[in-house]
UniProtKB/TrEMBL annotation, chain B:
Membrane-crossing residue ranges in chain numbering: 12-34, 104-125, 132-153, 173-197, 225-247, 288-307, 314-335, 355-376
Protein name as annotated: Glycosyltransferase RgtA/B/C/D-like domain-containing protein
Highest taxon in the source lineage: Bacteria
Keyword hit for Transmembrane helix: yes
Keyword Membrane: yes
Coiled coil segments of this chain: none
Keywords annotated in UniProt: Membrane, Transmembrane, Transmembrane helix
Native species: Devosia soli
Length: 200, 383
């Protein structure tokens, strides 16, 4: 069967090929213009974050101190992303950002307490941790490897959105790769053993 | 690998049909005994379940519940969009008709499809009984036969690859395209069989006309070939269309790799780092070395195919090795085991000499015991 034959079968084959080509081009165009949420795009496509927030209820009673070690409190509903564990020495951060989501009820001045230990992997002498709430940067702290410390951070009412939750982000500019050619989604920085959010 | 056309009469047809059945029996026996030896306290009825390790679990879930939506209900980042649909969905569909536990059904289907893949490969093995015996033993009773007799896409990948090259041997572009379309919906690298069809068409043109002059017009003047070109990647595009509809991202199969921490780098660097990663536990080879050696063997056999000017197979194998290698050595042994042009070529090489054949056959059958034990023990080189 050749084009020069101009048989109905040949023309039908070309027509079908043209249809398939159009379908494939349309699919390709759609694939190059994904219609996804901002979180999906940031994690999977743009790779601007290592922390893909998963839906959690954020159930939390204001003023309660949560134990993040294995055998401690069930904290799953407060951890949208960026945590690996729990383990006996706490909840290990994984990636370059970790998040906590805690229900706060009405907006008010709060105090955030985080008990953190730096990981002991070869790397910087201290791990900087940038703490933000609802997207507003509050403070940068330094966590020492193998040393557990409590950090208290005031959370002013102005920093909080009106959705009834405090979305806490911990960014790790000094996160350590645990091996050669390990993606930043698996880098390590700190271990969280306890946290609370209390009225100031 | 031989590029032969079908012959009308085949005096070995009974042997071709019966021999793989013998290896189905021997392979099942070896793997079952290894299972009993490794897990004496496990119920024998859990044989198929015990052999279902690593990605096999993902395929079972896919066959039973389909693709993850986004956000993923289990609240993990690793979506099962990374796994191509054709084989798990086929098992899932058959499972709607035959009410068996998914792993049992999938294992039985895999054994059946592998049997067909072996029989179909007969002409590509040069109709050599020794080569055929080695290939059948490797697939059904060999050291990594658990890939082809449990629930991995490798089963369908081998069958469809073999069909593509069977059709290409006859320059049947449409037949090859049909198999390639399914192949591109089985594993991402299956789409490279489209290039094999294009290369074969170019080779045919050159052979018929004796010149490259007028090649573009010559190619596009063949409506069947033009149609084949657009049919062959259809599995991939259909899956992309589904992902566009399902989660809004047609490239989710690639994007979700981020959750596995895959880092794209120079394949040669991955290969070298694997080769020099010496064991520290007293083993002869480290897992990285085993995986790197598998890739080196694959590239070496691809070189043999190039030396024989079997360019459609060369392009398919080369890209099928290099592209996964750019993301690391993980699963390289499994990928190489399922690269039909490579394993078929090796079978023809080891089948040439009677003594080498006998040693190879014995090695395949004996090593099946030890490698199955390693598989049951969770050896990561086999992932």
């Amino acid at each position: 069967m050749r084009l020069s034959e101009r048989s109905p079968a040949a023309l039908a084959a070309y027509a079908l090929a043209a249809l398939l080509a159009l379908f494939e081009l349309a699919v390709l165009w759609q694939a190059l213009h994904p219609n996804v949420s901002a979180d999906y795009r940031a994690y999977y496509i743009d790779r601007t974050t290592t922390c893909l927030p998963q839906p959690v209820t954020g159930d939390y009673a204001l003023g309660t101190e949560l134990d993040f070690r294995s055998g401690g409190d069930n904290t799953r509903e407060t951890r949208p992303c960026g945590w690996d564990g729990p383990a006996g020495d706490g909840m290990h951060s994984i990636g370059e950002t970790s998040r906590l989501r805690l229900a706060i009820g009405r907006r008010q001045n709060l105090t955030l307490m985080l008990e953190l230990t730096g990981v002991t992997l070869p790397g910087p002498a201290q791990q900087r941790v940038v703490i933000s709430v609802d997207g507003k940067k509050l403070r940068e702290i330094a966590v020492t490897p193998d040393k557990t410390e409590r950090f208290t951070i005031p959370v002013p009412i102005d920093a909080l959105d009106e959705d009834g939750f405090a979305d806490i982000a911990l960014d790790y500019p000094d996160a350590i790769s645990p091996g050669k050619r390990v993606a930043n989604t698996y880098w390590r920085s700190v271990k969280l053993t306890a946290a609370s959010l209390s009225p100031a | 690998m031989f590029q032969t056309t079908d012959s009308g009469q085949d005096k070995h047809i009974a042997w071709v049909l019966l021999l793989p059945l013998a290896f189905i029996v021997s392979g099942t026996l070896i793997r079952f005994l290894a299972f009993r030896y490794a897990q004496p306290d496990t119920e024998w009825t859990n044989y198929f379940g015990a052999l279902c390790r690593w990605d096999c679990g993902w395929y079972i879930r896919m066959a039973e519940t389909g693709y993850d939506p986004f956000p993923i209900p289990s609240r993990v980042n690793a979506g099962n969009w990374a796994f191509f649909p054709f084989y798990p969905m086929l098992v899932g569909l058959i499972g709607k008709i035959i009410p068996l536990p998914t792993i049992v059904l999938a294992s039985l289907l895999s054994i059946g499809f592998t049997y067909v893949a072996v029989v179909v490969a007969w002409p590509l093995l040069g109709r050599s009984l020794r080569a055929y015996t080695l290939y059948a033993a490797f697939m059904l009773s060999g050291p990594v036969s658990f890939y082809f007799t449990t629930f991995f896409t490798e089963v369908m990948y081998v069958l469809l690859t073999t069909l593509v090259f069977r059709y290409l041997a006859k320059s049947d572009y449409l037949g090859a395209a049909g198999a390639a379309a399914l192949l591109s919906g089985t594993r991402i690298v299956g789409v490279f069989s489209s290039l094999s069809i294009g290369v074969k068409a170019l080779m045919d043109y050159r052979q018929v006309n004796g010149t490259w002059r007028g090649v573009v017009g010559g190619i596009f003047g063949q409506p069947k070939l033009v149609l084949a070109i657009f049919i062959s990647p259809l599995g991939l595009f259909a899956y992309m269309a589904f992902l566009n509809h399902w989660i809004g991202d047609g490239l989710a199969f690639s994007h979700t790799q981020r959750a596995w921490g895959r880092q794209v780098a120079n394949p040669a660097v991955y290969l070298w780092e694997g080769l020099v990663n010496w064991p520290t536990n007293g083993a002869i080879l480290s897992n990285s070395q085993i995986l790197a050696v598998a890739a080196v063997v694959g590239l070496f056999v691809t070189g043999i195919l190039a030396w024989r000017r079997q360019w459609p197979a060369v392009i398919f194998c080369f890209l099928g090795i290099i592209i996964p290698l750019a993301a690391g050595l993980a699963s390289m042994l499994r990928f190489m085991s399922a690269m039909a042009p490579i394993t078929i070529t090796l079978a023809t090489l080891f089948g040439r000499n009677r003594i080498v054949f006998a040693i190879s056959l014995a090695a395949l059958l004996v090593s099946a015991w030890f490698v199955t034990l390693a598989w049951l023990g969770g050896n990561v080189a086999l992932v």
